[in-house]
Amino acid sequence: MKKQVFPFTMVDVFARQTLAGNGLSVFVLEQTLSAYMMQAMTREMRQFESIFLQKLEGQHRWRTHIFTMEEELGFAGHPIIGAAACLHQLYQPDSKTAEFEFVLNERSVFASSKQESGNFFAEMNQGKASFGEPLSASVAENFLKALNLHAHDQVADLPLQVVSTGLPYLIVPIQQHLDKARICHEKFEALLASVGAKFVYVLDVQRREGRTWDNEGKVEDIATGSAVGPAGAYMVRHLRAQAGDTQIFAQGAYVHRPSELHVSLNAEDETVLVHGQVCLVAKGELYV
Question: Which domains does the chain have, with CATH numbers?
Answer without folding.
Answer: 5-128+275-287 (3.10.310.10), 130-257 (3.10.310.10)
